[in-house]
Amino acid sequence: xxxxxxxxxxxxxxxxxxxxFTGQAIFFTMVYVLAGIMLLSxxxxxxxxxxxxxxxxxxxxxxxxxxxxSEGFTIRxxxxxxxxxxEVRDFSTMPGYHASQVVPAIWPRNAxxxxxxxxxxxxxxxxxxxxxxxxGDPFGLFSLPRHIDARERIVVYPAIVPVTxxxxxxxxxxxxxxxxxxxxxxxxxxxxxxxxxxxxxINRIHWKTTARRNKLMVKEFELDPMVDIWLFADFSxxxxxxxxxxxxxxxxxxxxxxxxTIPPTTxxxxxxxxxxxxRYFVQLERALGFSAYLPHREIYxxxxxxxxxxxxxxxxxxxxxxxxxxxxxxxxxxxHSFARGTTLVLVTSSLDPxxxxxxxxxxxxxIRLLCIFIDPSSFDPSLDSSEIRGTMQLAKIPYIRxxxxxxxxxxxxxxxxx
Length: 418
Description:
By secondary structure, the chain is of the alpha/beta class. It has nine helices and 19 strands. The protein has a six-stranded mixed β-sheet with strand order 16-15-14-17-18-19, with helices on both faces. A four-stranded antiparallel β-sheet has the order 5-4-8-9.
């Protein structure tokens, strides 16, 4: 386009000089025609990117690694001039996502639609948009962009592998059987109803039974016989170990096309294991708590249900090994959150044995610990994990060892080493 404009400028100058020297009217007429074409083209190009409405439609702003993400676009011409061509350039930050499109001619009051779909290859928080719409005049002399700064946030959850069984060592699970202990506190387990007595709170009244019996009836509750489970994920900088090949690969090497192809870093293995365990315990209807430093502190008190799973997956989607705190410091800071009898499932790849001292303190307080150990020596052969594994055995802390390229489902189903 600049070459075309320069050619017209040069032609107009030569024609004007010829008219001044010869006095012929035809040369001046040609100058006026060229100037008119330039002016008309500039005005047309300005209007070409006006009178446009563009909308992007997404079914959900949540997706997961390995799943497709689709989006629809509708661009409508609300002006009085036809849009001869439009180039829509998308600047979304999602890896591998391409929504840019060259739109053919759109007549006034008409619209054009297209769909785009991509497989999510990396967990994280991304943005859809902004957009830039470019168009021009019929002569191809001017091209003007219009920037649309609207953005939408999308979260891609980490991949989850199926977990068939996690064998907590003998003695770790104190609950699980019916323990009909009535309590004055409101719990999730309603044991029955009884007549109202002075002092009962209004929120304990069972209104349907009250209406049926024509007298106030209140609900009775019993203690939850199942112990709480806490999931603690270690994302300290000291625990990060990558396959040496990662240093020489481009960023696309981090992409993950399915739950069976995990990037060779302890960070990604920890995220996938933690996410998989979270879904496993939620499906068992266990009260699950979560704690991690991502690097900022994230803690969710034990709850049941998929809402808790959603919270954990959103936290793990943006988790990175950036916390400057050591695993020992993190356990010491969160020790007050774990009640006696709690089962603590720790996911870590730390080779620092100092955290075992804190783990023994927790064990003496009646907190049962199971360590899911992501073996860093399988990612970097120069490291040796035999010392930390031996120390865990001496400290009588059961652990499940997971190495690079292991089948996560089978690895989690194995009997813990004690």
